Amino acid sequence: MTANLTFSKLSAVIYYELLILWRQRVIPVAMIALTLSLLLLDWVAKQPIPDTSAGSISVMLQASLVYLYIVALVLLPILIADSVPRDRQYRVRELWRTLPLTDGVYLSGKVLATSIAMGVGMLIAALVGGSGYYIIAK
User: 67-90 b/e with 16+ CB inside 10 Å = b?
Assistant: First the structure.
C-alpha cells in the first residue's frame, strides 16, 4: 500500500513538472534546435559520403547517437537545476511542503520528468534526423 501511494505521489510530481516544462516551451524549443542541428549534421555528413551503403548509414547513426548523448549530458543538468528555484518563484514549493511528500520523492519526480521530456524529444529528433539523412542521401 505504501509503495503504491509513493508511486502516486511521484507520478503527480512528474505530471506537474512535464506540464510546466511544456508551458514554458523549454523542451519544444530545445528539441527543435536539436532537430535542426541534426539535419545540418546530416547535410554536412552527406558531402564526404556520397554512397548510401549500409556501412555509411550505420556510421552516421552512431555519430548522431553520440551527438544526442552529448547534448543530453549538457542540457539535462541545466534544465534540472532551474526547476527548484522556479517552484520557489511561482510559490508552488510552499504548496508542495503542505503535502505529505518527502524531499526525495519531490526531487526524483523532477529529475524523472525532465529525463522523460528530454528522452521523448531526443527520440523525435533522432527519427526526424534519420529520416532527413535518408532523404538527403538519396
Answer: bbeebbeebbeebbeebeebbeee
For the segment 26-44, what is each residue's pLDDT rounded down to a tens digit?
Answer: 777 777 877 777 777 766 6
Q: What's the pLDDT at 59?
A: 67
* E strand or H helix at 96: helix 93-98
Element (H, E) at 116: helix 103-137
- The mean predicted confidence, pLDDT, of the chain is 78
Instruction: Give me the count of residues in the chain.
Output: 138
CA distances from 120 to 50, 90, 133 (A): 31, 26, 20
